[in-house]
Amino acid sequence: MRGCWRPAHGRHHGVHHPRTLKMREFLSDPNRFGQLRMINSVFSFYGSPDFLQNDIRVKPDLDGLGVLGDAGWYCIRSILWANDYDLPETAIAFPNPVKNEAGVVLSCGASLHWEDGRIATLHCSFLAHLTTEMTAIGTKGTLHLSDFVIPFEESSARFTIATNSWFNDRVTGWQPLPSEHMVSTDLPQDALMVVEFSRLVRGIKSSGLKPDVKWPIISRKTQAVLDAIKTSLEKESQPVHVAF
């Protein structure tokens, strides 16, 4: 097994926020969003000197995947979510990743490619200011959020959509303008993750239900894309098939 496995729920608890369902409704609307064509995802934060020297994520014998296995995991998961977990065919790492003296990646990026022409880009870094941006672009609309990992606020989360937008007659502005939508929640997304996990366990223990295969499959797909990017990094940005 290449790389390291990540918990199916804990590596992207944002999927449990009610905002995610509202965004899915938009992405699934053929009249407002159309067909998905492009996705871009960025997760970065500026590591302190102590972090870059001592954190387990920069130690090859503790977590050799570095930023790709940490921030990159979230980027990949957001891209797969936008694609309704349809795996890309190919991953191509961007050239010149930044590594520490031990060879652990501190900053890198990649592009993902589907047979029908869909494309996604991602960038993850321990060397840039805290940024968690995700944009999905369809044939008729665009979805954008600036806090896809952890919402800016615990009790609510926002996203912006643009639908059938174009420049005005004088090309001095847009029409219609993008709109912002807010989704409130009584519990933060990490608590909602625990609630869902408890529901699954209770169903198995009390109702004789079988384990839900959804989350392990999503986790494996995320790992498959991560492994392909890692291999492309090792092969100096050669295209690598995503094997699942």
UniProtKB/TrEMBL annotation:
Residues 29-143 form the GFO/IDH/MocA-like oxidoreductase domain. SUPFAM superfamilies: Glyceraldehyde-3-phosphate dehydrogenase-like, C-terminal domain (SSF55347). Pfam families: GFO_IDH_MocA_C3. Signal peptide: none annotated. It comes from the Eukaryota. InterPro entries: GFO_IDH_MocA-like_dom. Belongs to the Gfo/Idh/MocA family. PANTHER family: OS10G0403700 PROTEIN, PTHR46368. This is GFO/IDH/MocA-like oxidoreductase domain-containing protein.
